[in-house]
Amino acid sequence: MQVLITDSSLAPSRTLHFTGWQLGAALVALTAVLLLVASAVYHFVFLTAAREGWPVVSQIVKLVVRDETAQRDRFLRQNLDAMAQKVGEMQAKLLKLEAMGERVSGLAGVKPEEFKPLLKPGASASAPAASAKGGQGGPFVPGLGAFEREALNGLNLHVGGLDERTDQTTDLVTLIESRLLEGRLAQLMVPSSAPVNGPVGSGFGFRSDPFSGRAALHTGLDFPADTGTPILAAAGGMVVTTEPHAAYGNLVEIDHGNGLLTRYAHTSRVMVKTGDLVKRGQVVAQVGNSGRSTGPHLHFEVLVEGVPQNPARFLAGQASAKALAAERGSR
Prior knowledge:
- By secondary structure, the chain is of the alpha+beta class.
- It has helices spanning about 20-50, 55-110, 110-115, 145-190, 320-330; strands at about 1-5, 15, 205-210, 215-220, 220-225, 230, 235-240, 245, 250-255, 260-270, 275-280, 285, 295-305, 305-310.
- The strands form three sheets. Strands 5, 6, 7, 8, 9, 10, 11, 12, 13 and 14 form a ten-stranded antiparallel beta sheet that branches. It has a two-stranded antiparallel ribbon with strand order 1-2. Strands 3-4 form a two-stranded antiparallel sheet.
């Protein structure tokens, strides 16, 4: 681009040459200058007019500010309404969850006094700020009316209450889960599974001793079975004995905790060793005829604090019913 500059005098004309980049830079510079001028005019004219109350300019500024304030208030109210609706939905869901937690806690054996916290009265969140002593401060939020302040305070209180109740419900669910797990573990450690799949031959109680013929206490249940039949752990626990015994023959003892111990006697082969942790239904030995025995069978005992108990009271299902019937027949 060329610009020709002439003079009415006899001076020669001058020609200025501009490239595209130079023209672009000039336009950018001109735009920046205009923006600076506009900012200066707004700052020194409109703001000064608004503060000092100039007749015309101040009215224009007030109209603009009033319109912006109204738009902001509408936007704020819409957002507050949406937030309040969301908080209400969360509160309804939390109420359902709390009711469900109380019902499940009863099933889990959790007592109400264990999860209902004692709420201590504290300082009111809505106490007037004028009652506070000492220094005060904080950012100034212009245009926030009484309605918006009250709505925000109410939402803050509701959200704080929901957060506290959520923590309490979480603690309740954790306690219920712990109790249910304790119950599940207790069930796993109680010898309630039959060690051999088969009928019960001789029950718990006094009977005629097969060797001497005299009346003697039979301290367990006998399960007749073929040699080599798998013997299953009646519950989970730790193996404490895998030694031959004069009367019991090849003996396996499993400690289930809480003073519970089971014995598996007259085995032909032991499949575990002392110190092993076994689970319910795991093969621990095989049926045999070792020790003081007249034929292949499993002699099964349950001891509580070292005192023999009737295993039929622990075993579940058909094996338990048959053992009870055998016990009545032996008396």
